[in-house]
Structure formats: C-alpha cells, structure tokens
Amino acid sequence: MKYTIAVRRLLNLKFTKEELATHSQTGKESPAFIGVKAENHSKLDPVRVGDIRLHVAKKYNIDTSLVNKAITVALADARKTKKRKIEKEDTD
C-alpha cells in the first residue's frame, strides 16, 4: 500500500468527514490565498495528526514532510468533495 493511501485511511479513521472538510493541519491561512477572502479553518487535533504523521513516516521509512503533503492534499480533497455535495444539493 502506498503511504498516501495509508494517510487517507488513517485520517478517515481518526476524524469525521466534516472535520476533514473544515479543518487544516495548522489552522493558519494558506500562503496561496494571501489577500484573498478565504474561509478560516480550525486546527485538527495535533496529537492525532502527529500520531498519523509519525506512524506513516516510520512504517514507510519516509520523511514527515511527505506525510504532511499527503495530509494537506487529503484535506483539500475533503473540502472539494463537501463543496461539490453542497453545489449538487443547491441545483436539485
């Protein structure tokens, strides 16, 4: 199993879909959106995120920065999924 799949599965076990769609790793504004009005995201529980980060890094013998990137992508995908679901409900 790829480490990215492990990250997603562990996130889904430890957090609800709503938490994943409305929270971020740090709680800070993304540098990609400086000056743009964007939603503020609360910080995910750092203990649970840290456990996932360390477990995956150790099991797959990779740097934690790769795990952080996988978590960020998974959270972005959760946001997109929630947004699509809301848009679909609005059109129905």
Describe this structure in words.
It comes from Cryptolaemus montrouzieri. With 92 residues, the chain is mainly α. It is globular and about 45 Å long. It has four helices and two strands. Strands 1-2 form a two-stranded parallel sheet. 66% of the residues lie in helices and 4% in strands.
Descriptors for this entry?
Arc Repressor Mutant, subunit A, 92 residues, 4% strand, mainly alpha, 2 strands, two-stranded parallel sheet
Strand content of the residues, in percent?
under 5%
Radius of gyration: 14 Å
- The pLDDT mean sits at 90
Full CATH superfamily name: BEN domain
Helix content: 55-70%
Q: Tell me the major beta sheet.
A: 2 strands, parallel
User: What's the CATH C level?
Assistant: Mainly Alpha
Structural class: mainly alpha
Which CATH-level-2 architecture? Orthogonal Bundle
Distance between the termini: 38 Å
What is the topology, as strand order, of the major beta sheet? 1-2
- Examine the coordinates and then state which fold CATH places here, giving the name of the CATH topology: Arc Repressor Mutant, subunit A
Total domains: 1
Q: Choose one word for the global shape.
A: globular
Order of helices and strands: HHEEHH
Discrete helix count:
4
Protein name: BEN domain-containing protein
Organism: Cryptolaemus montrouzieri
InterPro entries: BEN_domain (IPR018379)
Pfam family, one: BEN
